[in-house]
Amino acid sequence: MLRYSAKQLLNMALTLFAVSFLVFALNELSPGDVARKVLGPYASQSQVDYLTVQMGLDRPVLVRYAEYMGKALAGDFGDSVVFRQPVSALMFDRLGNTLLLAAISFAVIVPLSIVLGVLAGMRERGWFDRAVSVFSSMCASIPEFAMGVFLLGIFVVWLGWLPGTSPLRSDTGWSLWMQFVLPVLVVTFYDAGYLIAMVRSSMVEVMRQPYIRTALLKGMSFHGVVRRHALRNALITPFTVILLQLNYLVSGLVVVETLFAYPGFGRLMLEAALTKDIAVIEAGTLIAVSVTMLTQLFGDLGYMALDPRIRV
Amino acid sequence: MTEKLHPIVEKAGREFADGKLERREFLRLAVLLGVAAPAAYGMAGLAAPAMAQGMPKKGGIVRIGMRVQDISNPHTYSWIESANSGRQVLDYLTVTGIDNVTRPSLVQKWEATPDLKTWTLHLRRDVTWRKGRKFTADDAIWNLKRVLDDKTGSSVVGLFKGFILTEFDDGQKDAKGNPRKSVRLWDANAVQKVDDFTVKLNGQSANLSIPESLFHYPLLILSPEDGGKFGVGSDGTGAFELVEHEVGKRSVFTARKDGYWGGGPYIDRFEIIDLGDDAAAQVSALVSKQVDMIYQGAISTLPTIEKLTHIQVNSVDTGYTAVARTHPIKPFDDKRVRQALRYATDNEAVLKGALRGLGKPGEHHHVAPVHPEYADIGYLKRDVAKAKALLAEAGYPNGVDVTIDARPQPDWELLAVQIMVEQWKEAGIRTKINVMPSAQYWENWTKVPFGFTTWAHRPLGTMILGLAYRTGAAWNEANWSNAEFDKLLTEAEGYLDVEKRRAVMAKLERIMLDEGPVVVPVWRAVFNFSDKKIKGYKIHPSIYIDAKDVWIDA
Q1: What is the pLDDT at residue B33?
Q2: How far apart are alpha carbons B345 and A255 in whole angstroms?
Q3: Which fold, A99-306?
Q4: Is B150 part of the contact surface with chain A (CB cutoff 8 Å)?
Q5: How far apart are CA A289 and CA A15, in angstroms?
Q6: What is the domain count for chain B?
């Protein structure tokens, strides 16, 4: 297992290196000129040229990449041209906000999905199973922005119970926790819909196994069977899927963050991409890739712990 | 009037008396040439606009939803939003109001020589920087010289190029290896200090619009001691102090404690909250009273806003538009195809569908009814049969297939394109829409063969035609060239008499209808939203926002 982990970590380092270069190169190829962006469409060419030289952007791309990587390895991720501040400070703040939203959502989504999925799956085609299935497929098929606007209409415009945006400041007349309710709700509905279906189908499959029937026939109570024989087996497949949700929760919240004016990582990345803010894009991509690969690694390790038959 | 009037004002006054000069145009000219605004209103026989709605009350906080951008370098601002942050702390030399009239600000009075080449600016003597120093001519000159230095990167350069700046070969090569042109002051004495409160601009050619140009939004007057940088705690002559600024989040301004020379401010605190670009988020924030105002409204949110009883819509008609413009390449190299495009468009339907009727239908010649020299040459009605006939004549009996490039933001632009594309289809102009992000569009706006481009409001019709349609002009995105048009335009620019200008403008407009490269579907009204408790706010055609005029009626 140690060897496997070491191999995976080395793999990750190589991937990060490749991705960092790809992002740099792609950014170079995509249309647009950073100095032009800073000065706006109406600045003259000579003014743009001055700034290009001043920012060192007239040098070959490989030279700039080497310089960037050299600094990045020493922990300096450069400055954002849009925000005019060090990327590390910017990322730390935005990523922190997103992680907070992700953590709260995760804490709601996982128990909710497991409870609903298991309860539904243990009595296939019962009334509760049908209700949960309808609910989960509805949630999973409504896009986040539609769900967001729908909830905004009810809780903000109509009832006026919740704030419409979440700038994460307590001096806007609404407490911080109230600002979290709607974003968490939208993420939960969207993501839990999918997870509930996963847990349920896994549970259904397990409940069809001969050993479950055997256990029931030997006179064990239904709930005892579910607890002692079905649960652990039913959670093996969803476990990986649940871990993969971390990816979505860290780098996929763009829509929710934009809709609720939430100062998070996804919105920062979207704006950086639109303004070709390369230092931010690089750092953000590396973070997103790291999260993906680390959750995969943990997923594999956890899988082994849950299912003794699996060896790597 | 005891003071001597500028000869052009005297002449204009006679023309006005003879009924040749329109009231508004006379007013604009008179203030531009140094007559104080209230006096000019009197001379034109107009009532000066009432400034306040009742007695302003003191105190309170106003929060506006607007992008919080990097504002560290005012002289290179390229966004109105940045300028709206900077202007709370810093002042301009002049101010152009919502009525298109330019008034004194840090410059108390200005005079121009009869040839309009030399402008004398008399500065106010009662202005102090917040940190205690007196505002003098040295401060103004330092700022003027800094924005006019090519290395600063300010767009003010474009406005003063012919007047006071001259091009020279700076010995460097541009990216393509051609010799590069830079600009510098044409004469060492071009910006001249007369005394501690008087500055002279000695130009090489005539320029009528210097006072308007001094209000170009990057020309904020900074304290030289701050070295061109701006941020929390920076000195200023304005009504507020910047106490907090976090890009992408919020800015906080507090009222100046030692009093402001220009009246106001009434509120204690002004906050800018960054809500991102999403229109729905901005409305949500208004609904839950997290902000009191929104910088600019989006059409898609109007139906919701109209249902909210505590919100009011502020709107003003402007010369803002977006044009569907062609390059002279197949099939648009034939003027009949360009005419067909215009005949196939139903401007009223576009106005209704894309802007919910907020504004006026366009007339395809890019001169708006709000322009003083606008000539009414009749409205071009939609005629699908005629459009088809024109296409057939041009050799396209089965219609044409083209692609138009457009941006997704602001939302009305894409909507307008979609509506026009449907209309064009009926005439056999089958159009694919290629949507690209704004940033990308602005990289290519002059290069795409067929695109939909925003054009901001300009006070004069000749200004917009000169910027966008004169042969070889930097912003002539259509690569259009018409010798007769150029000649007539120069003629129009030389007339002070608005009636003479209007006569030439009628000819220019007809050329645009006959041969022009554009479809001008609408004139936009600019609008935004504010809580009804906000008083003293009137929307400016350029959406400049001055928190010092605003007060709260709780």
Answers
A1: 65
A2: 35
A3: MetI-like fold (1.10.3720)
A4: yes
A5: 8
A6: 2
Quote the pLDDT of residue A300: 84
Q: Contact B439/A160, CB-based, under 8 Å? A: no
Distances B286 to A166, A260, B217, B268, B292 between C-alpha atoms, Å: 12, 12, 27, 21, 6
- Domain CATH code at residue B476: 3.10.105.10
> What is the per-residue pLDDT for B4?
60
Counting Cβ atoms within 10 Å, is residue A238 exposed (0-12), middle (13-18) or buried (19+)? buried
Among B219, B242, B258, which residue terminates a domain? B219
For residue B65, list its beta bridge partners: B273, B294
Token digits for B492?
């129009």
Domain shared by B344 and B204, yes or no: no
Domain with B428, as residue range(s), is 321-525
Nearest of B362, B356, B370, B271 to residue B24 by alpha carbon:
B370
Give the Cα separation of B517 and B514 in Å (integer). Answer: 9
Strand B429-435 with B293-294, pairing: unpaired
* Strand ordering across the sheet containing B118-123: B107-112, B118-123, B198-202, B191-195
> Which residues, in sequence order, are bridge partners of residue B269?
B61, B254
- The verdict on residue B155 lying in a domain is yes
> In chain A, where does the domain assigned CATH 1.10.3720.10 lie?
99-306
Please state the separation of Cα B5 from the chain's center in Å.
29
* pLDDT per residue as tens digits for the range A190-216: 889 889 999 999 999 999 999 988 988
| β partners of residue B432 | B403
Is residue A144 classed as helix, strand or coil in its secondary structure?
helix
Alpha-carbon A259 to chain mean position: 16
* Residue A202 CB neighbour total at 10 angstroms: 22
Nearest of A36, A55, A50, A34 to residue B183 by alpha carbon = A50
Residue from A46, A53, A80, A280 to probe the interface with B (highest B Cβ count within 10 Å)? A46
Query: CA of A182, closest CA in chain B: separation in Å?
Result: 12
- By Cβ distance, the residue of B290, B304, B445 closest to A163 is B290
Pick A68 or B351 by higher pLDDT. Answer: B351
Whether residue A260 and residue B273 make contact (CB cut-off 8 A), yes or no, is no
Which CATH number goes with the domain that contains B190? 3.90.76.10
Q: Tell whether B547 is covered by a domain.
A: no
pLDDT of A232 reads: 83
Give the pLDDT confidence score for residue A71 in this predicted structure.
86
- Look at residue B1 in the predicted model and tell me its pLDDT: 36
- Residue B63, domain member (yes or no): no
Closest CA to B271 of B247, B248, B297, B244: B244
Alpha carbons B462 and B208: distance in angstroms, whole number: 13
Do B547 and B270 meet the contact criterion of CB atoms below 8 Å apart? yes
Antiparallel, parallel or unpaired: β B429-435 and B400-406:
parallel
Distance separating alpha carbons of residues B119 and B113, to the nearest angstrom: 7
Per the CB < 8 Å rule, is A164 touching B283? Answer: yes
Evaluate whether residue B267 is within a structural domain. Answer: no
Rounded distance between C-alpha atoms, residue B536 and residue A27, angstroms: 46
Nearest by CB: B275 against A85, A165, A275: A165
Kindly indicate the confidence band of residue A144, based on its pLDDT and cuts at 50, 70 and 90: confident
Domain-terminating residue out of B163, B196, B219? B219
Which mean pLDDT values do the consecutive 10-residue runs of chain B (554 residues) have?
59 63 65 64 58 75 93 90 96 88 90 88 95 95 94 83 81 66 85 95 85 90 95 96 92 93 92 88 90 89 86 90 93 94 95 91 92 89 94 94 90 92 95 86 86 86 86 85 91 76 94 95 93 93 92 88
